[in-house]
Amino acid sequence: MWTGLCTSAQDPTTQFQIFGHVTSAVEQENNERFSDFSLGEHDFFVQSKITPRISFLSETVVAPLNVAGHGMTDFKVSIERARLKFQHREWFSVIIGKMHSPVNYWNDVYHHGRLFFPTIDRPRSFGSVVPIHTLGLRLQGQNIGALNFGYDLVVGNGMSSNDVSDGSLQKSFTAAVHIKPEERMRIGISAYRDQIAANSVGAHSGHSSTFHYMMGSPNWYPVDLDFELYCFSLYRKSSKWETLLETSWNRSGLSDSNDPELVGGLDSLGTSNNYTFFLFAGKTIGKKKRDQIYGLVDLTDFEERDLHIKSNQLMKFGVGWAREFSPLVNIRAQVERYTGNEGFEIPKDDKWELKVRVAYCLY
After folding, report:
1. Distance in angstroms (rounded) separating the CA atoms of residues 276 and 188
2. Is 294 helix (H, G, I), strand (E, B) or coil?
């Protein structure tokens, strides 16, 4: 409960939670084996009901900073969300602050607590094309009509900005709609538009720089790029089955704002078209319905002509088992096979991996 000095007829309430996880992995690549235990993201989650119509939500995450070989070298602290919401009616709310971009089901519903993830890792699209965060203004409506229609309209700082400011008139725009024809079913589509200034990766881009060109890379060019992303999501959960499908199409090309001398011959590369596909399907087993077996497919396909994301055609297949000991603790084991096509800037995957993760929540 809120313990501050302000009091009213209806005092504010605040809830604090801590989500975390520990992972163990065994990996075989090129006839070599590696294994380790790692401490993953720890998420300090705060929800506050300030008035009946005004609420606040924040996530502060302590996460591994980078990986050297197969060992973490340090941790970083970041504010992943800090948003204030005014709900006028269920069909109209105004949200301001740093938020997860509502481009697909995963990014809009799951937060950084691995306790709720259906798999051990995020889809690979979250390290490449998905703009994880937006700092700006969001208009939202939920559960409208018989189909429980919902919408999100967002304007904010783009993918190349930082958490302090943008410094540009150019903003990102997101439009997303969904329906929930059943209680535990959601179908959604979205469109995202941005201009990536100087081809730079900022605080609101993917969670991994593996897929992005970085300043100083041989194929990095400091040009402005027009970036478009279109996503489709389908989630459904029944008494025994749970399914999640996430697909995306990304198109990017040179912006008209570039200096012609800077662009040079790059315009001959044209516009790139990239695709991602993620499918998860799980079945609940056992009399107590605490266990789940599942499979996953995770594919990325990025063209060689793309100036922002390194070219690749990578595939990941996995099967897993999960056990829920309580709503606050679960364990998940997952066997993964990584493969891909050669001849791209990101080398072909060719490895097996066994991962075991324990996720938990503390109130």
Report:
1. 16
2. strand
**CA-only gyration radius of the chain, Å:** 21
With respect to residue 323, please indicate whether it lies within any of the assigned structural domains: yes
Joined tokens for residue 259: 């200096």
Distance in angstroms (rounded) separating the CA atoms of residues 312 and 213: 13
Containing H/E element for 260? Answer: helix 260-263
Q: What are phi and psi of 304, to 5 degrees?
A: -65, -25
Domain assignment present for residue 4? The answer is no
Domain assignment of residue 6, yes or no: no
Going residue by residue through the chain, which has 363 residues, state the pLDDT in tens, using 9 for 90 and above: 333 444 444 678 999 999 999 999 998 887 788 888 888 899 999 999 999 999 999 999 998 876 444 455 678 898 999 999 999 988 999 999 999 999 999 999 998 889 999 999 999 999 889 999 999 999 999 999 999 999 999 999 988 888 877 767 789 999 999 999 999 999 999 999 999 888 888 777 776 678 888 887 888 888 889 999 999 999 999 999 999 999 999 999 888 877 777 776 676 666 899 999 999 999 999 888 899 999 999 999 999 888 899 999 999 999 999 999 999 999 999 999 999 999 899 988 899 999 999 999 988
Q: Is 124 helix (H, G, I), strand (E, B) or coil?
A: helix
CB-side neighbour CA atoms (13 Å) of 162: 4
- Does 287 fall in a domain? yes
Q: What is the CATH number of the domain that holds 163?
A: 2.40.160.10
Q: Into how many domains does the chain fold? A: 1
Quote the domain boundaries for residue 213: 13-362
Q: Which of 231, 233, 274, 226 is nearest to 250 (CA)?
A: 274
